[in-house]
Design brief:
The chain is an all-alpha fold. It has one domain: Hypothetical protein af1432 (Orthogonal Bundle). The chain contains 17 helices and no strands. α4 crosses α6, α7 packs antiparallel against α8 and α8 packs across α14. The termini are far apart.
């Protein structure tokens, strides 16, 4: 089955779900308000405070190892001042928490905390890799890492029984999750995720990552960002942040197409000590479980 057929299959599956979660109204209003060059901290804070769950999770994110504030931030207005009201950061926080909220409390084929551990792990490792290769927007790499597997949540929740078969299949067959999905479902989480991202009006760069994070050479919007997320995804999978399941993946950095893409962007990587680099990435892993546990604790 070719990519066009899998995309058609994904569009049919996503289109058939009447109760597909949407980005909350508050988040949409925040994204619109941030387009106003004269917007104030008070306006943004007041709007965020009207959504208590979003506010709680934004605060937890800002106090997490990702942002590393010098001291705990306890006020939303202070949090926005800490960010300097940098519109990109606030947009990304609103987008991240909205995606989390959209599927909070749902019961699917995979355990939700395990999914977010993988997602936040990929986000944190993506940010580390981005810094190493000189990618200019570290927060963008972080967010792209978090949302790259958006399609998996759809499959887990809206195709629960068929997806359980996929998860069982990869335990006994030497195939990747994506290959098992294509074989048993006629599409993959990449095409499903792209359909959802388009419905939610995600920026093109994020859609590109969601669609091509397993094949960064096919990325057209930002191949470097896609390569960063691809490597972070592989790294987290072989380090056990893989939904608690088992996937037949080998990982040799020097043999990955994504690594070739990044070396073109930053030629100095060719001289880098790869083993030491992997040890550095390991340092990003331990805080993930604690972060996810905090994010999903009662607000």
């Amino acid at each position: 089955m070719d990519k066009n057929q899998m995309m058609e299959r994904a569009e049919i599956l996503v289109g058939a779900v009447d109760d597909l979660p949407t980005i909350p109204i508050v988040a949409t209003k925040i994204l619109q308000l941030l387009d106003d060059p004269d917007v104030s901290v008070e306006e943004i804070a007041d709007l965020m405070l009207s959504d208590q769950v979003m506010t709680a999770r934004v605060m937890k994110l800002l106090n997490s190892p990702v942002y590393k504030p010098a001291q705990e931030i306890t006020s939303l207005k202070r949090a926005l001042v800490y960010l300097g009201l940098r519109l990109r950061h606030v947009r990304e926080l609103a987008l991240t928490t909205s995606v989390i909220n959209a599927f909070d409390g749902t019961s699917g084929a995979m355990e939700l905390n395990a999914f977010w551990e993988h997602s936040f792990g990929v986000g944190m490792v993506s940010k580390t890799i981005a810094g190493k290769v000189g990618y200019q927007d570290l927060e963008k790499a972080y967010i792209a890492g978090i949302i790259h597997d958006l399609g998996e949540v759809f499959l887990s929740n809206f195709m629960r029984e068929p997806f359980l078969e996929v998860l069982e299949h990869i335990k006994t067959h030497q195939v990747t999750l994506g290959d098992a999905e294509a074989e048993l479902l006629g599409t993959t989480h990449c095409e499903i995720g792209l359909c959802m991202a388009r419905k939610w009006n995600f920026p093109d760069a994020y859609c590109d990552v969601i669609a091509n994070h397993h094949n960064p050479v096919e990325a057209t919007v930002d191949p470097v960002l896609c390569a960063i997320v691809n490597l972070a995804d592989l790294f987290c999978t072989v380090r056990g942040l893989n939904y608690g399941g088992r996937e037949w993946i080998s990982f040799n950095l020097n043999e990955e197409e994504a690594w070739t893409i990044l070396k073109k962007e930053s030629p100095a990587l060719a001289q880098m000590d790869v083993e030491r680099f992997c040890y550095e990435l390991d340092d990003a892993i331990p805080d993930v479980a604690a972060l996810v546990s905090s994010m999903f604790s009662p607000a």
